């Protein structure tokens, strides 16, 4: 499969020339976000394995990976295919494996991609080992560890299950190590709580690795990762890598829990004013939930950002102007309830940019990034992104 290629924008293209709604990416902010996390992890002596699911873009991947070949993390086989086609050869597929996906895993490995898979049951380990024996290829697998009760994985103190999985894999496959994702950190708030989640995450995989090694099983990889914990980890002793994804773009959810500021959000949706309901205090734009997504991740946070925070065409936020409701192709802008701010004087045809609640979900609604530098109106390039599974 051929990787999608970026292309330069026409010399005279500006944001005002673009059809709306469309996706805008400030590459300067993206680069600062990447530099920030790399610098933090460097102080802890642990490398970054960036999760590429947020960008789903070859150009974004090249800005966040350490080398053109990786390391990288993905959440779909489509991502594995696209990045492998672009020359990425060190990939972890961090979603629980099923039998139906093993032929493609083997095919990608046969192309020279060191693609590791994830599992958390003896059943999975047994069919991975059986497929490995049949193909005469030892597929590498990591055991997912449930470090915070978020979703999937083996509890780090469940020695019997950990060892049983490890021994089942040894019958033809390869035990690559352990991996966890402290997804509950997304509901945390403040530096102290985020640091606590980071330590819980670290302790979970380190304890699981200790159990496996005590049973005589290999555990070379001890992998942790989420954007909140990656930024607030204070000690990564015995961890071999950190995974994170949304840190590249950041979003309103991350800002709401204290991972970043509003100015650190690199992604926005460009929209056009298409009408008013003045008696209701509404401005209508042509970006509804098809452009913004239905994600309401800030609804339970201290500041509810609706379906997104509205900015002017340069990306400067208006005071308390949010997308209070969204239909398929209509967004309704209004002042946040109980705010003393006033509605901006926007005319039909004016452009606004809307910051996303969840960058992954919003980006998934679009086929390309329109690249800008900071507050510039000039579109420097267009980077394609892909979707699907």
UniProtKB/TrEMBL annotation:
Highest taxon, organism lineage: Bacteria
Domain D-serine dehydratase-like: 266-373
InterPro entries per UniProt: Ala_racemase_N, D-amino_acid_metab_enzyme, D-ser_dehydrat-like_dom, D-ser_dehydrat-like_sf, PLP-binding_barrel
Record-annotated membrane-spanning stretches: 252-274
Zinc found in the keyword field: no
GO molecular function, one term: alanine racemase activity
Coiled-coil positions: none
SUPFAM superfamilies membership: PLP-binding barrel (SSF51419)
Keywords: Isomerase, Lyase, Membrane, Transmembrane, Transmembrane helix
EC number: 5.1.1.1
Keyword match ATP-binding: no
Pfam families: Ala_racemase_N (PF01168), D-ser_dehydrat (PF14031)
Family: Belongs to the DSD1 family.
Family annotation (PANTHER family): D-SERINE DEHYDRATASE, ZGC:162816-RELATED
The name this protein goes by in its record: Alanine racemase
Species per Swiss-Prot/TrEMBL record: Sphingomonas natans
């Amino acid at each position: 499969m051929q990787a999608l290629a970026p292309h330069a924008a026409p010399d005279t293209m500006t944001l005002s020339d673009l059809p709306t709604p469309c996706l805008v990416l400030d590459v300067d902010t993206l680069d600062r976000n990447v530099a920030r996390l790399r610098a933090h992890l460097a102080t802890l002596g642990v490398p970054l394995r960036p999760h590429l699911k947020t960008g789903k873009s070859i150009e974004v991947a090249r800005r966040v990976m350490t080398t053109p070949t990786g390391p990288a993390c993905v959440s779909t086989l489509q991502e594995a295919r696209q990045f492998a086609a672009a020359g990425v050869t060190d990939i972890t597929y961090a979603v629980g494996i099923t039998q139906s996906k093993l032929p493609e895993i083997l095919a990608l490995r046969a192309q020279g991609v060191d693609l590791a898979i994830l599992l958390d049951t003896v059943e999975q380990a047994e069919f991975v080992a059986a497929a490995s024996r049949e193909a005469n290829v030892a597929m590498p697998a990591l055991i997912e560890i449930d470090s915070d009760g978020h979703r999937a994985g083996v509890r780090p103190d469940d020695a019997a299950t950990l060892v049983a999985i490890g021994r089942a894999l040894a019958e033809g496959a390869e035990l690559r190590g352990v991996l966890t994702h402290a997804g509950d950190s997304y509901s945390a708030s403040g530096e102290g709580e985020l640091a606590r989640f980071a330590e819980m995450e670290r302790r979970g995989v380190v304890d699981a690795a200790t159990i496996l090694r005590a049973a005589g099983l290999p555990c070379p990889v001890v992998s942790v990762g989420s954007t909140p914990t990656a930024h607030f980890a204070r000690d990564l002793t015995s961890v071999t890598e950190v995974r994170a994804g949304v840190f590249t773009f950041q979003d309103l959810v991350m800002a709401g829990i204290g991972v970043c500021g509003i100015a650190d959000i690199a992604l926005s949706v460009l929209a056009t004013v298409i009408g008013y309901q003045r008696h209701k205090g509404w401005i209508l734009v042509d970006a509804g939930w098809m452009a913004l997504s239905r994600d309401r991740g800030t609804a339970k946070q201290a500041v509810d950002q609706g379906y997104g925070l509205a900015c002017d065409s340069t990306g400067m936020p208006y005071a308390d102007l949010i997308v209070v409701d969204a239909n398929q192709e209509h967004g309704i802008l209004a002042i946040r309830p109980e705010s003393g701010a006033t509605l901006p004087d926007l005319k039909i045809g004016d452009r606004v940019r809307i910051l996303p609640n969840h960058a992954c979900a919003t980006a998934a609604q679009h086929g390309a990034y329109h690249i800008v530098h900071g507050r510039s109106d000039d579109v420097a390039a267009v980077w394609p992104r892909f979707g699907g599974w």
